[in-house]
C-alpha cells in the first residue's frame, strides 16, 4: 500500500485565520493564534508575515519584550511596513526604550508623512527624552495640520455637540506608556473624557494657532455649547486670552468662560477669600522670573513680604503636589528639584503661608493624621468626591494616601463614607454651607476645591482651602463600580453632563457615563508590624533598578527610603519620578573610578552598558544580533568616596553591566558602615570586564562583608525559539544578584537602629524573614515575637 504524506498547511489560509484571531478581543484567541503560528512556522519557516503576526499577538497579550523580539527580527525584511514600525514604537515605549521608539516613529513619519497622529507622538516622546526643540517643531506641525478633531458619539446618535477648547503650547506633552497616547499633563482637567460618549460628541480644538489661521473657524462643525477646558490661570494666561476671543466670535453658551478662569488665579482667589470669617485661603506671595538658586529669592521674600516660617514653596502651574516643599529652615532645606527646573529657564514660584490641619487620633497612634477633602462646584452646587489621608505627611496625595488607608481601613469605611452621606454634618457646623456660598462668588461653572479643617489653636474649626480651580480632576474613570467613592464621583459627573444639556437648552437624559475600572485584586494583609527605626535608609542604585520596578512609588511612599539612582543609559523617564520625595535621579552618569567612560548603545537596549559587549563569537546566538553596537557615547563616572553630602550609606545596588569592582575599590570609605551590598554577577558573561563572584567576594571579605546568598537567578534555554513552548525549560545560569551582609564581627557591633534597618530591607525587599527575626531578637525579644506573629510564623494562642 502506498503511503501518502499529510497535506501541507495552506500558508495563506492559515495566515488569514491567525489574523482573525489576533483581531479578536479575547485573550484565548490571541493565545490560540500563537499556537497556530507554532504549527505554521514548523512547515513554513522564515515567513515574515507569520513572524509579524507573532509580534502582534504578543503585543495584545501585553508581553512587550516578546513582541519586540519578533518585530525587530522581521523589520529587516519589511522596512516599508507602517503598521510594523508603529507597533515597534509602541513596544519600545512600553519598555522604556524611548530613543529606539523615536527611531521607529521617525520611520513611520517617512512612510506616512501626512499622518498627524505620528507627529503628535513624536512631539510627546521628544518632550519625554528632553529634545524640546524638536518636540516643539513636531507639535507645531501637528497643530497646524489638524487644529481640531471630533471624537466620541456615533454621528447618528449625537444629541449634543460640545466644542472643547484646549492649548497645545502652554505645557510640555508626555506619553502614556500603557495606552501609547499623548497626554497634556498640566493646564487641563479630564472632564471632556467623562462626558456621555454615546450621545455627546466633543469637538476638541487647540486655540494656539487661531490668530494666524482664521480659516480654521470656517471649517469647524456646528456646536451647541462651548466648554473652556483651559484651566490654569498662571500657566495658560496667553491661551486663555485666545480662548476668550474665540468664544466672543462664536456666540455660543460657554461653560467656564476664559475670563472667569483668569479671575480664579491664586491671587484672585486670595483677594476673594482674605476677609472671609470662616474660610482661610493662605496668604501667597508670587515670585516671577526666578532663575538659578531659588533659596536667594525665598530668603528675600521672607525679609520683604512679611512672610513667616514654616511656609510652602511651590512652582506655579503644577498640580498633585509636584514641586511643592514645606520649608522649616531656608538655609538647610534641599531645593534640588526646583533648582533643576530653574536651570532650564525662569519660573514663577509661590511662597504660601502654612496652616496646620494635622490631628492626633486614638485609632491611628504614632503619627499625625492629615485628612484632605475634595469637592466639585458644579452649576451652583457643591458635590463631595473623596477624602485623602496622610499619616505623618502634610503633602497628601495618592502616594501618601494608599499606605495610610491600608493601615487604617476605617478611614475609608467610616470617615469617607460619612463625608459622602452628609458633608455638612461631617464638618464643623455651618462650614459646608459657608464653603458653598463662598465658591458661588468665583464665577466659574465647574471647579474643584481641596480643603481641610484647621487644628491650629488660633483658627481651630475653620476651613483652609488649599486649592480651588478648574484644573482638578474627577477620578470616576479610575474607580471601582459599586464603591461609595465611585457613587460620589458619578453624582458629580452626572451633574456636569446635566449642566451641558441645560446650557444647550435641552432636557437631560439618562446619561451613559464611564463604567470605571474593576478593583485590583490584592493579597489579604496580615498583621502589621511597627519597625521602630529612625531616619530613612540611604540607598545608592548604580543602574536605576529601583525606579523601574512596579512597586517603586509605593515603596517610596513608605517614607523609609532615600534613594540616589545613577542612570547611565537614561532608562527612567524624568517625568515619572519628578515628584518623588527623597529621590535623586542622575541620568547619563554612573559610579566608577571617576574617569570618563563610554556607553555602548546596542540594538537590544537591555544590553546597552558602560562595558563593551563581547565579540559575537563569544556570545550565544540568541544575543548576537541584539549586542551589536549602534553608537558609542561618552559618559561620566563618579567615585563613591567623592560623593558630597552622603552622610551614610545603608544599601548599595550594583548591576552586572558595569564595573562593580571599580565602584567598590573607589568606595571603601563610604562603605565602611554599609549594611547591605547587592551586586549583579554574570555567570555567563556578555560584556568585557564583568567581575565574577570570586573577585567580588574577595573584595567583600577584606572590607567587612560576608556572602549571604544569590538572589533572583536568571537562566538561558538552549531550545530553539518558537518551539517546545508547551514544556519550556531554561537551565544555564546566566546571572544573579549576590547579597553581602556585614561579617559576624560587624553584625555584633551594630546598634539596635542599624539592626532594625537591615532587617527591614531584607524583609520588605527580598522576602527574607529568618535573619530579620534574629536581628530583631538581638534588639528586643518581644519585638521579635511580634514580628513572627506579623509574618505568620507563630500561631496566636486561643483565649482560655
Layout of helices and strands:
Elements: H1 11-23, H2 27-43, H3 48-60, H4 64-75, H5 82-94, H6 98-111, H7 116-129, H8 132-145, E1 148-150, E2 160-166, E3 173-175, E4 182-184, E5 200-206, H9 215-219, E6 225-228, H10 237-250, E7 254-255, H11 258-263, H12 266-273, E8 279-280, E9 284-290, H13 294-304, E10 311-315, E11 324-327, H14 336-342, E12 347-353, E13 369-378, E14 381-391, H15 398-407, H16 410-421, H17 423-426, H18 431-439, E15 446-453, E16 463-469, H19 484-503, E17 537-541, H20 552-557, E18 561-567, H21 574-577, E19 583-587, E20 589-591, E21 597-602, H22 621-624, E22 629-638, E23 651-654, H23 660-665, E24 676-682, H24 693-702, E25 705-716, E26 732-742, H25 744-749, H26 752-766, H27 770-779, H28 781-790
Parallel strand pairs: 2-5, 2-6, 6-7, 8-16, 17-18, 17-23, 18-19, 20-22, 23-24
Antiparallel strand pairs: 1-5, 3-4, 9-12, 10-11, 10-12, 13-14, 13-15, 15-16, 21-22, 24-26, 25-26
InterPro entries: TPR-like_helical_dom_sf
Amino acid at each position: 500500500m502506498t503511503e501518502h504524506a499529510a497535506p501541507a498547511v495552506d500558508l495563506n489560509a492559515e495566515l488569514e485565520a491567525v489574523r482573525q484571531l489576533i483581531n479578536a478581543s479575547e485573550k484565548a484567541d490571541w493565545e490560540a493564534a500563537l499556537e497556530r503560528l507554532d504549527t505554521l512556522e514548523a512547515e513554513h519557516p522564515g515567513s515574515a508575515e507569520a513572524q509579524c503576526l507573532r509580534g502582534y499577538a504578543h503585543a495584545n497579550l501585553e508581553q512587550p519584550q516578546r513582541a519586540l523580539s519578533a518585530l525587530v527580527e522581521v523589520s529587516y525584511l519589511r522596512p516599508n511596513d507602517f503598521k510594523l514600525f508603529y507597533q515597534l514604537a509602541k513596544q519600545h515605549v512600553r519598555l522604556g526604550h524611548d530613543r529606539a521608539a523615536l527611531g521607529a516613529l521617525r520611520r513611520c513619519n517617512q512612510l506616512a508623512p501626512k499622518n498627524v497622529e505620528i507627529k503628535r507622538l513624536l512631539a510627546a516622546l521628544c518632550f519625554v527624552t528632553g529634545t524640546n526643540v524638536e518636540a516643539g517643531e513636531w507639535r507645531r506641525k501637528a497643530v497646524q495640520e489638524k487644529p481640531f478633531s471630533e471624537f466620541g458619539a456615533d454621528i447618528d446618535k449625537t444629541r449634543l455637540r460640545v466644542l472643547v477648547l484646549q492649548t497645545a503650547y502652554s505645557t510640555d506633552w508626555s506619553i502614556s506608556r500603557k495606552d501609547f497616547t499623548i497626554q497634556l499633563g498640566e493646564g487641563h482637567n479630564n472632564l471632556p473624557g467623562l462626558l456621555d460618549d454615546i450621545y455627546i460628541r466633543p469637538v476638541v480644538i487647540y486655540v494656539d494657532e487661531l490668530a494666524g489661521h482664521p480659516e480654521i473657524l470656517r471649517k469647524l462643525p456646528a456646536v451647541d455649547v462651548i466648554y473652556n477646558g483651559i484651566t490654569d490661570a498662571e500657566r495658560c494666561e496667553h491661551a486663555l486670552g485666545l480662548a476668550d476671543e474665540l468664544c466672543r466670535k462664536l456666540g455660543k453658551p460657554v461653560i467656564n468662560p476664559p475670563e472667569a478662569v483668569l479671575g480664579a488665579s491664586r491671587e484672585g482667589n486670595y483677594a476673594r477669600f482674605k476677609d472671609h470669617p470662616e474660610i482661610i485661603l493662605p496668604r501667597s506671595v508670587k515670585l516671577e522670573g526666578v532663575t538659578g538658586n531659588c533659596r536667594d529669592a525665598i530668603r528675600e521674600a521672607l525679609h520683604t513680604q512679611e512672610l513667616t516660617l514654616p511656609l510652602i514653596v511651590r512652582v506655579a502651574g503644577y498640580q498633585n503636589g509636584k514641586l511643592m516643599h514645606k520649608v522649616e529652615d531656608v538655609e538647610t532645606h534641599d531645593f534640588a528639584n526646583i533648582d533643576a527646573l530653574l536651570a532650564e529657564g525662569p519660573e514663577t514660584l509661590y511662597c504660601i503661608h502654612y496652616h496646620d490641619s494635622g490631628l492626633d487620633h486614638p485609632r491611628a497612634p504614632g503619627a499625625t493624621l492629615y485628612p484632605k477633602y475634595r469637592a466639585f462646584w458644579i452649576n451652583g452646587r457643591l458635590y463631595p468626591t473623596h477624602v485623602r489621608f496622610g499619616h505623618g505627611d502634610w503633602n497628601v496625595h495618592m502616594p501618601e494616601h494608599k499606605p495610610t488607608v491600608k493601615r487604617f481601613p476605617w478611614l475609608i469605611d467610616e470617615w469617607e463614607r460619612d463625608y459622602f452621606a452628609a458633608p455638612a454634618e461631617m464638618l464643623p457646623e455651618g462650614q459646608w454651607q459657608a464653603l458653598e456660598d463662598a465658591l458661588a462668588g468665583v464665577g466659574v461653572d465647574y471647579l474643584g476645591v481641596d480643603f481641610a479643617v484647621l487644628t491650629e489653636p488660633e483658627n481651630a474649626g475653620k476651613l483652609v482651602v488649599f486649592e480651588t480651580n478648574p484644573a482638578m480632576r474627577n477620578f470616576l474613570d479610575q474607580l471601582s463600580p459599586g464603591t461609595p467613592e465611585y457613587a460620589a464621583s458619578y453624582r458629580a459627573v452626572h451633574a456636569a453632563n446635566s449642566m451641558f444639556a441645560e446650557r444647550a437648552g435641552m432636557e437631560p437624559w439618562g446619561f451613559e457615563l464611564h463604567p470605571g475600572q474593576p478593583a485590583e485584586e490584592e493579597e489579604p494583609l496580615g498583621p502589621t508590624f511597627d519597625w521602630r527605626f529612625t531616619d530613612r535608609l540611604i540607598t545608592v542604585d548604580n543602574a536605576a533598578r529601583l525606579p523601574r520596578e512596579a512597586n517603586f512609588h509605593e515603596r517610596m511612599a513608605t517614607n523609609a527610603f532615600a534613594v540616589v539612582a545613577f542612570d547611565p543609559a537614561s532608562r527612567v523617564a524624568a517625568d515619572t519620578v519628578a515628584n518623588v520625595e527623597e529621590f535623586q535621579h542622575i541620568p547619563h552618569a554612573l559610579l566608577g573610578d571617576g574617569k570618563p567612560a563610554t556607553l555602548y548603545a546596542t540594538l537590544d537596549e537591555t544590553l546597552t552598558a558602560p562595558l563593551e559587549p563581547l565579540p559575537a563569537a563569544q556570545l550565544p546566538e540568541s544575543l548576537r544580533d541584539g549586542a551589536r553596537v549602534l553608537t558609542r557615547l561618552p559618559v561620566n563616572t563618579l567615585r563613591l568616596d567623592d560623593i558630597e553630602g552622603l552622610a551614610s550609606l545603608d544599601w548599595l545596588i550594583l548591576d552586572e553591566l558595569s564595573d562593580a569592582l571599580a565602584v567598590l575599590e573607589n568606595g571603601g570609605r563610604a562603605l565602611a558602615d554599609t549594611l547591605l551590598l547587592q551586586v549583579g554577577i554574570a555567570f555567563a558573561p556578555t560584556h568585557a570586564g564583568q567581575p565574577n563572584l570570586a573577585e567580588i567576594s574577595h573584595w567583600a571579605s577584606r572590607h567587612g562583608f560576608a556572602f549571604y546568598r544569590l538572589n533572583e537567578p536568571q537562566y538561558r534555554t538552549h531550545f530553539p525559539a518558537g518551539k517546545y513552548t508547551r514544556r519550556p525549560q531554561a537551565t544555564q545560569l546566566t546571572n544573579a544578584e549576590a547579597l553581602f551582609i556585614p561579617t559576624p564581627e560587624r553584625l555584633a557591633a551594630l546598634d539596635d537602629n542599624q539592626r532594625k534597618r537591615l532587617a527591614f530591607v531584607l524583609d520588605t525587599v527580598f522576602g527574607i524573614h529568618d535573619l530579620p527575626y534574629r536581628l530583631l531578637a538581638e534588639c528586643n525579644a518581644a519585638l521579635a515575637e511580634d514580628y513572627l506573629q506579623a509574618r505568620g510564623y507563630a500561631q496566636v494562642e486561643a483565649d482560655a
